[in-house]
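User: I'm preparing a small set of examples for a lab meeting where we compare how different chains pack in three dimensions. I only have the primary sequence for this one, and I'd like the structure in token form so I can line it up with the others. Please keep the answer compact; I'll paste it straight into my notes.
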Amino acid sequence: MPEHRERRESRAGDELEEIVVKVKRCAKVVKGGKRFSFNALVVVGDRKGRVGWGYGKANEVPFAVNKGIQEGKKKLIGVPIVRTTIPHEIREKHGATSVILRPACEGTGIKAGAAARAVLELAGVHNVLTKVFGSTNPINVVKATFGALERLKTIGQVEETRGVHLREAKVVTPPPAAAAAGEVKA
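Assistant: Understood. Below is the structure token output for the 186-residue chain.
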């Protein structure tokens, strides 16, 4: 029996989806007691190569999430995806957090913690290995992962930047010992 789940309408827009990574409660002590406000870290993306993140603050959770979504829409970037993974390994540091992203073969999935997974899923990456060193604060992990995705380049972009062709057919030359042995026999 196939189970049909209705997808709830995304607040990010028709083609964008959002994932709330972290909601924090902040308390301000006032004369009559404590006044609470909320912070929401939200990742927005279309699972087709565009992703952004936002941090919203408000007195109620839904308003904080909406502010995060609006900020995330303003920060959307394009992510180069080669087949279902990233083009090359990359390291990025933000604050005390270091993130390494490595391309992975088909069927590996996203091997990452919650914060990095949200960014990679909504970017449209299906196979990737990640490792976080140092602080695992979700805000810094999201920023570092986002920064790494921002710096990714395809072979075509590197060729254009450097003015060289990297995909030329490589001529295989025999090792010097084999070449010398071939000359002796001739």
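A couple of notes for your slides: The CA atoms of residues 24 and 55 lie 11 Å apart. The chain has a mean pLDDT of 88.

User: Perfect, thanks.
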